[in-house]
Protein 1
Amino acid sequence: MSNNRASGVLLHVTSLPGRYGVGTLNRSAYAWVDFLADAGQSIWQVLPLGPTSYGDSPYQSLSTYAGNPYLIGLEGLLEEGLLEQKDLEDAPELPEGKVDYCALYEWKLPLLHKIAERHSQAAPAEFTRWCKTQPWLEDYALFLVLKKEHNNQAWNQWPKPIRQRQARALQEARDSHQQLILQEKFIQWLFFKQWKQLRDYAARRKVRIFGDIPIFVAMDSSDSWAHHHLFQFDKELQPLAVAGVPPDYFSPTGQLWGNPLYDWKAHKDQGYKWWIDRVKAAFDMYDILRVDHFRGFAGYWRVPADAKTAETGKWVKGPGADLFRALHKALGERNIVAEDLGDITPDVIALRDKFEFPGMKILQFAYGSGPGNPFLPHNFETTRFVAYTGTHDNDTVRGWYENGTESEREYCREYFGNPEEAVSATLIRATLKSTAQWAIIPLQDLLDLGTEARMNFPGRAHDNWQWRLKPNELRQEHRDQLLKWTRMYNRLQG
């Protein structure tokens, strides 16, 4: 972790404004980087960038390596001559301020496949070279093609030969679907080319990208299919148990995530190569990496595969320090942040501190249990953490305050001396002036938006991940205020 105080803003790429229904890697993304730099921010935090599936969650991706095709900027494809203006004439009326994932699935994905069909066979040598550097790409492209062939069923419902990746079945599939596989690879190339260009631009403007890696992969993913020997599956490749968390702040019955669980002995026997490759690939995309659900490496909540809620799970010991020693030996020092929220036990804290990973402090959590609450700024005992007003899983500050208990509101007001400013501004200033090395503000809080702008409701399977910034909603006054606060609390870089 850098020794310098710094700050940034949390905004997922899908939430950027612009045409065609979702934030993309187009001009609005470059304008956003300019806003950050001009406002004195040196960090842009995003959510996972992988391709999403049912439920649209970036934490349930079809691949831990691939990029989300929805994020490909169509304007850039027009400029390159890969897309013609007439291709956009049938674009549906897509809402501003909200992502319509169903419309994107029905319109944008077919459009990208049309582009790939048109150009993939005559792609430049750069494309071929890039494919050779991506060892995950062949399995991922074949996975998508087979998924379509099997009516979008999850891979563990496919016929046994291809489900079990029998050599003959795999080769026959590759031989019969060569062109479709090439097209999927081409779409990925378009994403990574645009992402690299944007990341290079952010680096020139001295803005670091703060990425996010989920601890688990999705059940229906190319990762669990291609490496099923590394997961807790039975002989028919059905999960023996799944991931989740016990009853918590967000849900009285816990959260039943449904992800397959790792066979940690199998990972250890391979020297944690799968994890080393995964983390290395993440740092090829990001400058800083948040490890989601860090506590699962010390102990994870194992839920029977047939359970209806997560209440019946039990804690099972994770790989602990053994994994992180292997990562450190292979990759050296890296900027890793531990998402250490939830049911945190001493072994989790010991694991975090052993490798000097900064943890997280959420100011919204501070006002419900009196002056000893560890999220109150006066109880911050170190600088090695990242402070937030809230995260993508929280309500906005304004929504939290309006929907909270009167006792929490009263304690919050008294703690900050009954300020006249909006509570969003109060918590932003408290976050920025805290002793935290890094401070991250969700854009919704800078804009003082309510619950309507919340990104995710944990435990709810629908209507999440949809919020978008509207055109002209972010104004000069927001930039000036953020720059003023950042300078005031000594977080300007360079």
Protein 2
Amino acid sequence: MRTRRIPVAAPVFVGNEKQYVNDCLETTWISSAGKYIQSFEQKFAEFCNTKHAIAVMNGTVALHLSLIALGIGAGDEVIIPSLTYVATANCVAYVGATPVFVDSEPQTWNIDPEKIEQAITARTKAIIAVHLYGHPADMRAIMKIAERHNLYVIEDAAEAHGASVEGRSVGSIGHIAAFSFFGNKIITTGEGGMIVTNNDQLAQKMRQLKGQGVDPVRRYWFPMIGYNYRMTNIQAALGLAQLEKVDWHLAQRRRIAQTYRQYLKDYDDICLQPELPGYVNSYWMTSLVLGDNLPDRDRVMQQLAEQGIETRPFFYPMHVLPMYANLANGKKFPIADRVSMRGMNLPSFASLTEEDIHYVCACLVKVLGY
């Protein structure tokens, strides 16, 4: 039994985090107003090459506000990958629309554009493209489909800060994009999120909606039903400091993924998430799928845990969850099912050392019986 524990994720602070947070405390600007919110929004918009960034309380509400701003509601359908975090489906349900699940493609495990085309009906209003575990979805194909059918595209970029497709930053390709800054993300505010868009009207509407719907010029006048989805100045201070070091954070994730790949390159049945030509994977997590002839995934994870190594399973597909199972309508999702049951995430936080990675790989290879 190893005494040291290697977590699957941990925040890393190497910049001005303490200085900026202490400034909030000393000036008493701790709630949803203050200089750090505006600075964080401006810098994040620059990072994504978008006109607007709207800071919110988490990635889930970023998706929720995106759907509301696009006017999606009861009677509408939104196409999403079945293999995603539950927030993607939940936000569609929040607005009274119906999530329509499609299968993944086998290489990156992202939503399969061919399956999107087959799922479109007269009720379809939008596609949510999830950039799973840091590798972008096929946005060129998805945007072409959306243009043909006059659909909105929302990028669920919660896991993909700094990823890109053919030189375009994720977040700048669809009509709106949602990011998460949860504690295990590439950069973090503890809890927090960001919406980015190039559309002036959508940005204005989402800013109003996140602040209870208050009129932008008439204080305490509320012409619409809104939400309290605001980020605090303390969170934004933390986020700004993290964003100032985002190149370092991204470089560490890439270093970690490349080191894992080097140590595991001789084992063909361990399928690491790739980085396809023309794409930049942000490597939020170093993710892999075990070949069918290898031991049970959950047993492998348990044996690694006994060696002090924390891992995490892939998400359950939406079509197997109790509240969404009836929406599958008899469709099959063979890729999502297999990847979900055979996939796992390895420790991937920025301060992970090569010694740690070597230990993880050595234990993994031993547990797998090589």
Protein 3
Amino acid sequence: MVLNSFIRYTADSLCIDEVSIDAIIRETGTPVYIYSLKRARENYRRLRSAFARLGARVHFSLKSNGSLAILRALEEAGAGFDCVSGGEITLALEAGARGKDIVFAGVGKTRAEINYAVSKGIGWFNAENALELRYINDAAANAGVEAVRVALRLNPQVAAKTHPHMATGHGAAKFGLTADVIRMVLARQAEYPRINFAGIHLHIGSQLGDNAASLSAVDKLLDLIRPWPQIRTINLGGGLPVAYRSDETIPSLDDFVEALAPRLDGYEVLLEPGRAIVADAGVLVAEVLYVKRQAGQIFYIVDASMAEMIRPALYDAHHEIVPLNKTEGDLVNAQVAGPVCESADVLARDRRLPLLRAGDKVALLTAGAYGMAMASNYNARPRPAEVVVSESGDRWRVSRRREAVEDLCRLEL
């Protein structure tokens, strides 16, 4: 089981920090996301410490989890933010971030979003299109901004060891600029008088399975920018993996930093982790609605679904599932499925789980990243509540209320 010192059994009851999850759901109901602010901040500090040798500035990838409670806790701890839309910029500012501490990335920024970002004094644009540079330059001129810092995102055409839907640095991906295009842009910098081409950005994928592809991409990046010594900032993006399975081995962070240090000596380094900060700080709690025995299988039908957690359907992703109340006894091979009207709505296949009954509660572990952030109202399902356990570890509160059915109709005309 992928438990940790913050999400663990105490007297056979699953707890987050010092709070029993049973006590929370008696008031909130299910399904519900619950996060440990203490764990998220510890993960942020761990990464900041690990990359301190590089002097790296850590920007939390907001797309992984947009909970304002989490964003505020990370901002107070010193994190910047990596945003990929105007909406995410708004959330980061609402959480207390300053514009200069925000990086604006994204392959399809609209002109309105670019104008908004410039007006808010965003610290960096990660640019992925030559026309985008024209829009940034025009926005700066219209706003009377002398210079906007831009990092050109390199597509190094490196195949990352990860799920195909998470690989972003290969030639067939929509992301980034090829080396030839970057050379062309840098050779014509005079055409963009309001842009300071001060950095290069690299992100080859998420949940990276080894360090080799990342290091190969960094080497290509360094070779590319050697003729332009004014580029002194390298943004390594995110992609740092977490263990979703109890037997999963992830690449050594210390080895990665050790390999990067001589390569990046003298450069300013930025990082954009998301999953590595919040994934194991959160759980999704669900109730067993029915137990169905069919075609020689046991199905636990729960009240969480692909609408609340799409990762298993989208990526065939694995999340460990555990009962809230630890029991002794035989384990059975079971399928854990949601109530949504789709065959893909299966949260776990062929899992060894205790014999459960209707009314029992289970938790999907390592659910703090790309869970609620990707939730939808499919099948007209109101999105779940979110709960945070305080940094002291002994108090909790609802940070986002559960949607009501009335909310589904609120924007209709």
